[in-house]
Amino acid sequence: MTTTEAPRATSPVARRKPKRKWTYYILPVYTWAVLLFLCLPIFVMILFGFNDTKGRYNITFQGFTLKWYKELFAIDGLTNALINSLTIAVIATVVSVAVGGALGMALGRYRFRGKGPLSLVVFAQIATPELVLGTSLLSLFLSLNIPRGYTTILLAHIMFCIPFVAVTVQARVAGLDGSLKEAAMDLGATPVVAFRKITLPMIMPGLLAGALLSFALSIDDFVTTSFNAGQTVTFPLWVYGASRLGIPAQVNVMGTLIFLFGLILAGYSILAGRRKKD
Amino acid sequence: MTSATSDEVKVGSTRRRMGRLTAYWLALPGGLWLAIFFVIPMIYLLSLSLMTGNFIDGFTQTFHVSTYWHTISLYHDQFIRSIIYALIVTALTITLAYPMAYWIAMRGGKHKSTYLLIILLPFFVSFVIRTLQWQFILADNGFVLGTLKDLHLVGSDFHLLATPVAVICGLTYNYLPFMVLPLYVSIERLDPRLMEAANDLYASKLQALLRIVFPLTIPGIFAGVIMTFVPVASDFVNAQLLGGAKTTMIGNVIYTLYLTNNDYAAASALSFTLMGALLIGIFIYARALGTKDVMEAAAL
């Protein structure tokens, strides 16, 4: 990458940093510009959570206030929607980690009849557009006259989370040494003990990544949910419905808090991963 | 296990049989869940699309294929528009993402994971809220257009919302990370010695890029294109929140037919057509690219 020759006379230690041509800076500047583009809506969201608006419209910045943080739960419909979203996300995460994790183990470690079609289904589900996932489930519920609501949202969310957990766990299991478990069992460990002491700690990173992904997918889901929600309202559905009338600042505040929560979780998992490597 | 005694063989084989049973027990709940809530619904989607009737009198199975021709002739504009938008957005995201993924993978150094975290940051904000922020940023008197209008750089009646530009901008924004990540993974995997070798053999940087880096990252491009094209073609949130009457995409039509008009047969016929069109598209694309194993490339 050096464009100018470093002077020969100086010793290698004291050698000046080579000057760089301006073209060297095109890519970094460009990258930061795109990163800024990606983060722009986040800045706007956080900023307007502090906006001292008069009335319902949150359009121009009128001054700094914390009142929306104090009145966070002032809108009953919005609060209920958020509670629905959070409980659905928690249940969907727990179930899909258990079910999807087992599926990932089976696909990653064992050979069995039907493995091919099963992995095809997992892949097809990930590749299917969400719109089709939503409408096909709706067709099932309509055809069988199943009323749509909280339960159907939950069923749908677990369905679209399972493949993602399965794929992350499968990738993790495939890179593992199976002989460790064999050794444990040769040394007299029961399958349960071998699982708890050997397999579980080894697939833990995969399970955690799958759990984070499931929670994020579930709490954020709009498309599949909108087709299968019936009268139940989740956070994204409420925001979408309110968008025609103008979004109250509480939405920005809740978005900011969810954002910070995700950021802390992600930061923590990166740090934990780094510590383990050392 | 090369010199196994008969005893070891016996232990091995029973364990293998047990292992196979374990595999079935492990795969069963997940497999069933996907069968009931993903595979079977597809069949119901197809079945519903072949019914005739209306919301009040109910639908009966008549195996009428005419719904398909009817809906496609009614909504082919929105169909074509969705495909065109998806093509433009995919092209835009590749152009935006490739240099960035390249720089992060090649020169990111120890900050690679930080850059990747920044790319993932938008996912911590709800999809609907993100899109609404763009509605707000691009608004007629928002801070972008408002400032431009104050400076008289654009006319006072200039607007972005409800135009294709706004919808494409929103779609590009929302699906850019899906393009960056697979590109990054495939560029990061490249052996840097290949570039050194190209340099030693007097290839210019551009030649090295076009003849070494680009061909070797085709699996990443393939994965990225599928991960953006498919969801963009079926998106309806961006067209709803940022677009107008002339930017309606096929997703909006399906949404309205299902949830407002309760015309389930037509809606499911359109969904099924969309799904089929996308599958055929992926297949042709995979063939054209010469990727032997589609699943491997997409799964990276």
UniProtKB/TrEMBL annotation, chain A:
Transmembrane segments: 24-48, 86-108, 120-144, 150-171, 206-227, 247-271
Membrane topology classification: Multi-pass membrane protein
Gene3D superfamilies cross-referenced by the UniProt entry: MetI-like
Coiled coil regions in record: none
PANTHER family: PUTRESCINE TRANSPORT SYSTEM PERMEASE PROTEIN POTI
Protein family: Belongs to the binding-protein-dependent transport system permease family. CysTW subfamily.
Protein name: ABC transporter permease
Organism for this UniProt entry: Flexivirga endophytica
TrEMBL record, chain B:
Subcellular location: Cell membrane
One Gene Ontology cellular component annotation held by this UniProt entry: plasma membrane
Pfam families: BPD_transp_1 (PF00528)
Tagged with keyword Hydrolase: no
ABC transmembrane type-1 domain: residues covered: 79-285
Coiled coil: none
Biological-process GO terms, alphabetical: transmembrane transport
Alphabetized SUPFAM superfamilies for the sequence: MetI-like (SSF161098)
Membrane topology: Multi-pass membrane protein
Residue spans crossing the bilayer: 21-46, 83-103, 115-138, 158-187, 208-233, 264-286
Keywords: Cell membrane, Membrane, Transmembrane, Transmembrane helix, Transport
Family: Belongs to the binding-protein-dependent transport system permease family. CysTW subfamily.
Protein's recorded name: ABC transporter permease
Native source species: Flexivirga endophytica
Lineage: Bacteria, Bacillati, Actinomycetota, Actinomycetes, Micrococcales
